[in-house]
Amino acid sequence: MATFGFIGTGNMGGALARAARKRLSGGEILLANRTAAKAEELAEELGCQAADNAVVAAKADYIFLGVKPYLVAGLMEEIGPVLAARKGRFVLVSMAAALTISDLRARGCGDWPLIRIMPNTPSAIGEGVIFYTCDGVTPEEEAGFLENMAGAGRLLPLDDHLMDAGSAVAGCGPAFVDLFIEAMADGGVACGLTRPMALECAAQTLIGAARLMLETGRHPGALKDAVCSPSGATIQGVRALEAGGFRSAVMEAVIAAYEKSAEMK
C-alpha cells in the first residue's frame, strides 16, 4: 500500500486524513503541521504518525499540500531539496484554492507528478465532493489515489480551468447549505418546534431530498412540483421564497465565491 503524507492538518487536511484512514493503516499515514501539537493530536485520534514537513516529503508516496495559496511557494522552497533528492516517484497533491496546475508549477512544484484537488468538509464523514485533475500522473498513480481516497465521498474528474467553478458550488456550498438548514430550523422554532427538533428535522429533510434526487435521477424541479399540490401549503412557501429572491440569492452566492477565487490567484 502507498504512504499518504499530509502537510497541514487544518479543517480540510484533517478531513482528508480521516478519509484516508478508512482505507489505509495508521502506519501508512504521516501528519505534519506548522503547529506540531495539532498534528500530534490528530495522529493520536487516527492512530497514525506525526512528523515534520521534511519527513513527509522524504517518505510519502502522495504528499498533500494543505496550506493556504500564499504559503505554497514557501513550503515548496522548504521541501524542494528533499523532494529533489528522492530516487523513486511520488505525487504532489495540492488543495490550495484558486491555484491552477501552471500556478503550482510556477510556485515550486516543478515537473513532479501533480494532482490538484478541490475537496469539501463533508469529506471527513465520507460524504464529500472532491474534484481532481492530474498532470504527469500515471494511470496506476491516479488509481491508487482514487482507491485510497474513496472513503472521502465522490471523486469527480474536472478540467483544471473549471476547478474554481466546481469549488464555488461544492467547496463553498456546505456553508450555504448550513445557512439554509439554520434558516429552516429558525422557521420551525417560530412555528413551535424545539430547537433540537427543528435542526434535526431540517437537516434530515435536506439529506432525504438530496438522496432522492441522486438516486432517482429526477430533476429537482420535477421533485419540487411533486410536493406542490394545487392550493396547498408548499406552493405558498415556494411563492414566499421566490418573492424573497431565493434562487437569485443562491446563484449570486456561487458567482461571488467564484469571482473571489479568481482574485486570490
Supply database-style keywords.
265 residues, alpha/beta, eight-stranded mixed β-sheet, 55% helix, elongated
Which secondary structure elements does this structure contain, and how are they paired or packed?
Blueprint: E1 4-7, H1 11-21, E2 29-32, H2 36-46, E3 49-50, H3 53-59, E4 62-65, H4 72-84, E5 91-94, H5 101-109, E6 114-118, E7 128-135, H6 139-148, E8 153-157, H7 163-171, H8 173-190, H9 195-216, H10 220-227, H11 233-243, H12 246-263
Parallel strand pairs: 1-2, 1-4, 2-3, 4-5, 5-6, 7-8
Antiparallel strand pairs: 6-7
Helix pairs in contact: 3-4, 4-5, 7-12, 8-9
Overall geometry? elongated
Number of strands: 8
Q: Low-confidence runs (pLDDT<50, min 5 residues)?
A: none
- Order of strands across the widest beta sheet? 3-2-1-4-5-6-7-8
The computed structural class is alpha/beta
Distance between the termini: 35 Å
Count of discrete alpha- or pi-helical segments spanning 4 or more residues: 12
EC number: 1.5.1.2
Function: Catalyzes the reduction of 1-pyrroline-5-carboxylate (PCA) to L-proline.
Keywords: Amino-acid biosynthesis, Cytoplasm, NADP, Oxidoreductase, Proline biosynthesis
Pfam family, one: P5CR_dimer
Q: How would you portray this structure in words?
A:
By secondary structure, this protein is of the alpha/beta class. It is built from twelve helices and eight strands. The protein has helices spanning 11-21, 36-46, 53-59, 72-84, 101-109, 139-148, 163-171, 173-190, 195-216, 220-227, 233-243, 246-263, and strands at 4-7, 29-32, 49-50, 62-65, 91-94, 114-118, 128-135, 153-157. The protein has an eight-stranded mixed β-sheet with strand order 3-2-1-4-5-6-7-8, with helices on both faces. The longest helix is centred in the last third of the chain and has 22 residues, at 195-216. It is elongated and about 70 Å long. The two termini are 35 Å apart. It catalyses: L-proline + NAD(+) = (S)-1-pyrroline-5-carboxylate + NADH + 2 H(+); L-proline + NADP(+) = (S)-1-pyrroline-5-carboxylate + NADPH + 2 H(+). Keywords: Amino-acid biosynthesis, Cytoplasm, NADP, Oxidoreductase, Proline biosynthesis. Catalyzes the reduction of 1-pyrroline-5-carboxylate (PCA) to L-proline. It comes from Oscillibacter valericigenes. Its EC number is 1.5.1.2.
